[in-house]
Amino acid sequence: AAGAALADGLSALDGVDLRPYLAGESYGPPHETLYWRIGKRKALRRGDWKALRNPGRGGSADWELYHLADDAGEMNNLADVEEDLLSELIDEWDDLDLDMVEPLFR
User: Are 66 and 52 contacting, i.e. CB atoms less than 8 angstroms apart?
Assistant: First the structure.
């Protein structure tokens, strides 16, 4: 949207132009999947599902899985019930994370 050139070594950016959403011209989610990482914390959200790895949460470093439409407060971890889905979401997170670099700040 800003029209700036990409930095050396970058071939693409993974963003979405949000202007049509802000102007009321586009509706629905701008991304099918969102993912993020902050230090050792990791998460991926696809639709109503959220896979989360937060070592500081309850002391576990295991991945957790929540169905946000039914559990917005993330109280019912479905990782043991939906193992195949969790594995799929973790694989997707790993694929997306391959293109990321460690931040320059700490």
Answer: yes
| pTM score, whole prediction | 0.75
3-class DSSP assignment, residue 46: strand
Under the phi-then-psi rule, with left for phi > 0, alpha for psi from -120 to 50, and beta for the rest, what region is 41? beta
Buried b (16+ CB within 10 A) or exposed e, 4-43: eeeeeeeeeeeeeeeeeeeeeeeeeeeeeeebebeeeebb
Side by side, the strands of the sheet bearing 49-53 are 33-38, 41-46, 49-53, 63-67
User: Over the stretch 2-20, which tens digit does the pLDDT of each residue have?
Assistant: 666 766 666 666 677 889 8
Higher confidence at residue 38 or residue 1? 38
At 76, the amino acid letter reads N
64 φ, ψ to 5°? -115, 160
